[in-house]
TrEMBL record, chain A:
Signal peptide region: 1-22
Protein name: Glycosyl hydrolase family 18 (Putative chitinase)
Record flagged with keyword Signal: yes
Keywords attached to this entry: Signal
Organism for this UniProt entry: Pedobacter nutrimenti
UniProtKB/TrEMBL annotation, chain B:
Organism: Pedobacter nutrimenti
Name of the protein described by the UniProt record: Tetratricopeptide repeat protein
Length: 347, 748
């Protein structure tokens, strides 16, 4: 509460100052940009490296590993541990661990403590092996009513073992229904402001990554959320492959460029929807005549709109982290440094 | 319309696995060589049936057999299995030392190699090879899972020294069996050596290709050869030469049944250009056919069928693809059509195209199994709605079916019957006569009275029930319609229930009626129980009792709690666990209600009796402790929320009006203020439940999963009365103590 008031006073002061100077912005943004990196091998090309440095001051939320439930051995195991081939010394890394909800469906309360111990140990070892020093850890789990208890108990134990500041990812529905879904016992929340719509084989359904109408259903609940919220924003696009009324697969690697090949696809009457006119292999994907491809795009403009829409509904927070998802899949010529700077400035 | 009874229409099985035979009418086993069975269409798993998908053990059995033959049966297969696959490298080392006399004691749990009828040279060759092969497992046998305690999940290196020894042995060995084994080990060694190299350029400099090419013709083209060939394929895959990799995988696929799974798993054309190159690598039509066949299993059966048929109409590699095409077309999946115009049109085009393709081939009549193509064309045309055309294909198939094949002739019958149903417009007496045989047969299959291995019939059962029920309904015969598919709404009219009872008890039923009733799941007792139940909620207890008596065993199970008891706080589990001097069954419960009602009518002990009756009426609602009283096959057995109750009975089983009425009667006859307070509070619970009902049943809430209204305290006139008139009573204190809602309300 105290910090909120302070932020408000700071904001007002700034407003007066800015107005005096004839500036449009109500206050100077103190937001801090960062990038996610989610692939299994950490390797940056030149463009990504520059972007990370210039936009985010080398702040990186790096997925260390997943925790999944292994049916065969009937235990939670780490999976897809990140392989790091770069020198990490110059980077400010926050380790991220993704835990499947299924893990907690199978992990009884009594075992959450030992799981937390193991996860913390692995984070520690991976960090040490790559000379990463870190102050925060982010845990990512789409928990449900049934797993709330064991996930939260895991988080408490993790805090105990790590002694670090913890951040947990928060989905929009978890903000709206926090009374039921609970608020995780961590220092900060990271609001995932994407994947808000359902992935449907409906050609006319709005963009499932971000659309203003779906977002609006949740925004009024943000102000009252108990945790300070950082924000994750989408910088990815993908295409849904739809066949016989079913979504067959979602592909990040197929975008407008591929779909605009007139020898293979026609544009249907519906915006961003294409249909295959032949059957063929393309980069390892088999496409059948008649398949629909629905391209769901986040352009710099959409991203800016999303940020504008969200920023007005958040409770004030100094130095809010704005994390862009994610570095390895950004379409580089399309997204420029200044795009990110403008978007971050909304917060 | 809510259907509490689902008959044969459930398509997923209870344990959560998805059973593809549930929606299918077409048994691939009837047509396709069993060696292809892992690739029969399966909607949710990689392989059909029970398949060994463990790459580390896949060839064990064959390898044992090869050694057994090579050693001329002098070592038992059991001992071979232990030495080849179970012994650790330390264990093998001890065995070797023991065989050389360097270890006096035989290693525990391992075979006594000295007792083998092998010459010392033979034994030495065998054990030396084993030791070397075992060392190679360190890099060649992959573990798949990461574990917490592993320091680094990096691949183990490939020791240089091991390669030198393998090469030495390979060069010096004369015996072709042994030589080929060292050759295989070397090929595999080179593969992993390349894989462990730093980058793709260095990988390309490996020795694998040159070694393989210069030595490939020294050995028979057996399993070992094709396993080695698959490593060569893997090399090309790593080099991104997908054309060569996929071509080589197709050769391994074709070699044997055991090699099919890993070869198919590895087969991944990337672009049309490399795919076309693979086809060009094929040395003859048969090799081309295998490539197309693999494309067909992986991605596109119709495209593959078209190509293979052009190359060789009699190819047995067509069979699997046709079965996959058919089973895939049957799969209802989780289709979701909102944009009906474009989806439905595209889908129809696809179905028509496939029916046309298979029909064209069937008409040409030049395949290896013409009946398969005719049945397939008939069925695909049935699925596409071209019934008359479908019939012509079936007629042709009938004349071509091999004699004395039980599965095939049953398959024909299933398809023929399904088409009959699809074409059926009206049911008259003659039709009923004709249907007796088929519907009895399907019921026999369903009940396990007739079993035909691998026959799929569930779709036919479901289709029968659905079609006949709908047709009878359309013809206005609700009774027969309900016999095929029992429907909740039917039971809301007593006349319907009476008609059903008359049919069930009719002497001398026709053959059709007998067959039809095999699809009706309920008994006379269920119907009596239902009639009694409905009367109870109409307060006609006297009329209900004799009907309940006829419900037999249905009415004699024990209710879990005492249905005449009530508390400030509803806790069903507490009521179930509480000691109960008398257990009530539905029948004894009703009879007790009857005598209580009689006493009230006679003016006896009215407060007490009205209070008990009110409790009983409360408890036989959704909110009370006796849900089992009203939950059955007709009214639904699995409702945990009021909205789960079939809507025909929702109000009946949730309304608190009857209970409220009797609580008020009790209050009017109460002698103390405390008693009045008690009745008022109980009436408030009925009032609260009505508020809940209005939230549950509100139209606006239908699509929400979280209802904010529930966070408000439901209060009404009885809370007000309780606070205003009874705040001085002892009972009021108890309510304050136990009921949080009221405490908050009163504290305002």
């Amino acid at each position: 509460m105290h910090s909120k008031i302070k932020a408000l006073i700071f904001g007002l002061g700034c407003l007066l100052l800015c107005c005096a100077l004839g500036c449009n912005r109500p206050r100077t943004s103190t937001a801090v940009a960062a990038f996610y990196y989610w692939k299994t091998t950490f390797h940056l090309d030149k463009g990504q490296d520059t972007l990370l440095k210039k936009v985010a001051g080398n702040r990186l939320y790096l997925r260390f590993f997943d925790v999944v439930w292994d049916e065969q051995s009937q235990q939670a195991v780490p999976n897809a541990i990140v392989g790091i081939k770069e020198n990490m010394k110059s980077l400010k890394v926050c380790p991220v661990v993704y835990l499947t909800n299924k893990t907690f469906e199978h992990t009884p309360l009594a075992k959450t403590d030992s799981l937390a111990f193991k996860v913390n140990e692995l984070v520690r070892k991976l960090a040490a092996a790559n000379q990463i020093s870190y102050e925060n850890v982010q845990l990512d789990c789409d928990w449900s009513l049934g797993t709330k208890e064991s996930y939260f108990s895991f988080l408490k134990a993790f805090k105990k073992y790590s002694g670090k500041k913890l951040e947990a990812t928060i989905r929009l529905h978890q903000v709206k229904y926090f009374a039921r879904t609970g608020v995780p016992p961590v220092d900060r929340g990271l609001l995932m402001f994407y994947n808000m719509g359902k992935i449907l084989p409906d050609l006319k359904a709005p963009n499932s990554i971000y659309n203003a109408a779906d977002a609006a259903k949740y925004l009024n609940y943000l102000k009252n959320y108990i945790l300070p919220l950082d924000v994750a924003l989408p910088v990815f696009s993908w295409s849904l492959q739809i066949r016989s009324g079913k979504v067959i697969q979602v592909y990040a690697q197929i975008d407008r460029k591929e779909l605009s090949d007139h020898s293979r696809f026609v544009h249907t009457g519906t915006k961003n929807v294409y249909q295959a006119i032949r059957s063929f292999y393309m980069d390892g994907i088999y496409i059948k005549r008649g398949d629909y491809f629905k391209f769901e795009e986040i352009s710099p403009l959409t991203l800016d709109n999303a940020a504008k829409q969200l920023s007005t509904h958040l409770a004030p927070l100094e130095k809010r982290n704005i994390i862009y998802y994610e570095l390895s899949t950004i379409h580089l010529p399309e997204f420029q440094e200044k795009d990110f700077q403008e978007v971050s400035a909304h917060f | 319309m809510t259907t509490a009874l689902t008959g044969g229409l459930v398509w997923a099985c209870a344990d959560g696995d998805y059973d593809d035979s549930q929606y299918s009418n077409f048994s691939p086993e009837a047509f396709v060589d069993p060696q292809y069975s892992p690739f029969f269409y399966a909607s949710s798993v990689s392989y059909y049936g029970n398949v060994n998908d463990d790459s580390n053990t896949r060839y064990n059995e064959l390898v044992v057999k090869e050694w057994e033959t090579h050693l001329k049966g002098k070592v038992s297969s059991k001992d071979l299995e232990v030495l080849l696959f179970k012994a650790s490298d330390k264990g093998l080392d001890s065995v070797y030392k023991y065989s050389k006399g360097k270890l006096a004691v035989r290693p525990a749990g391992l075979p006594d190699v000295k007792s083998f009828q092998l010459s010392s040279k033979e034994l030495d060759t065998f054990l030396s090879y084993l030791l070397l092969a075992k060392s190679c497992e360190s890099f060649a046998v992959q573990k798949r899972t990461y574990y917490w305690d592993e320091k680094k999940p990096a691949p183990t290196g490939v020791p240089t020294e091991l390669g030198e020894r393998l090469l030495q042995e390979y060069q010096s060995t004369k015996d072709i069996f042994m030589k080929q084994r060292f050759w295989f080990q070397l090929v595999r060694y080179y593969y992993f050596q390349e894989l462990a190299a730093a980058g793709p350029e260095q990988q390309g400099n490996g020795r694998l290709v040159s070694f393989f090419e210069q030595s490939r013709n020294l050995f028979p083209k057996n399993l070992m050869y094709y396993r080695a060939l698959s490593y060569l394929a893997g090399h090309y895959y790593q080099q991104k030469d997908y054309a060569t990799a996929n071509y080589l995988y197709s050769l391994s696929y074709d070699f044997s049944a055991d090699m099919k799974i890993p070869s198919k798993w590895s087969f991944h054309p990337q672009n049309e250009s490399d795919w076309e190159k693979s086809l060009k690598l094929a040395k003859n039509n048969e090799e081309k056919i295998t490539l197309w066949h693999m494309l067909g299993i992986s991605n596109d059966p119709e495209r593959a069928i078209d190509k293979i048929y052009a190359l060789n109409p009699k190819s047995e590699k067509l069979d699997l693809l046709l079965s996959r095409l058919i089973n895939g077309s049957e799969d209802p999946g989780d289709r979701y059509f909102t944009d009906t115009s474009s989806f439905a049109a595209t889908e129809r085009k696809r179905m028509d195209h496939n029916a046309e393709l298979v029909g064209r081939i069937a008409r040409n009549n030049n395949t290896a199994k013409p009946y398969f193509w005719n049945l397939g064309a008939g069925y695909l045309n049935t699925l596409s709605g071209h019934y008359a055309l479908a019939r012509t294909f079936y007629n042709k198939a009938k004349t071509q079916l091999p004699k004395n094949d039980k599965l095939l002739s049953a398959q024909y019958k299933i398809l023929d019957w399904t088409l009959f149903l699809s074409q059926l417009k009206k049911i008259d007496a003659q039709t009923e006569k004709e249907m007796v045989g088929p519907i009895n047969w399907l019921a026999d299959l369903r009940d396990g009275k007739d079993t035909i291995s691998n026959l799929r019939f569930n779709r036919a059962v479901a289709k029968s029930v659905e079609t006949l029920s709908a047709l009878y309904k359309k013809q206005g015969n609700l009774l027969k319609s309900n016999c095929f598919s029992s429907n909740t709404a039917f039971y809301t009219t007593n006349q319907n229930v009476e008609a059903l009872k008359a049919l069930l008890s009719k002497p001398g039923k026709t053959a059709f009626e007998l067959a039809m009733l095999r699809y009706y799941p309920l008994k006379m007792e269920d119907l009596y129980y239902h009639q009694a139940l409905m009367l109870v909620y109409k307060e006609k207890i006297d009329e209900a009792v004799p009907l309940m008596e006829k419900a037999g065993q249905k009415a004699t199970f024990n209710l879990l709690g005492n249905p005449f008891t009530i508390h400030i706080y509803d806790c069903h589990d507490c009521d179930f666990a509480a000691p109960q001097k008398k257990k009530y069954t539905p029948l004894t419960f009703l009879k007790t209600m009857q005598s209580i009602k009689a006493e009230i009518a006679a003016g006896k002990n009215v407060f007490n009796n009205a209070y008990l009756l009110a409790n009983a009426y409360y408890n036989i609602t959704h909110y009370g402790n006796a849900r089992l009283f009203y939950q059955n096959e007709i009214t639904g057995t699995d409702a945990t929320q009021p909205t789960d109750i079939p809507k025909e009975f929702r109000l009946t089983f949730t309304s608190g009006k009857l209970a409220e009425k009797y609580y008020l009667l009790a209050r009017a006859n109460a002698s103390t203020k405390d008693q009045k307070a008690r009745c008022t509070y109980m009436a408030s619970k009925c009032e609260r439940n009505e508020i809940y009902n209005s939230i549950y049943f509100s139209k606006a809430n239908e699509k929400k999963y979280y209802w904010e209204e529930f966070s408000m305290i439901p209060s009404g006139k009885y809370f007000a009365e309780l606070k205003r008139d009874y705040s001085q009573t002892q009972y009021y204190k108890e309510v304050l103590n136990e009921c949080g809602y009221f405490r908050k309300y009163a504290g305002k």
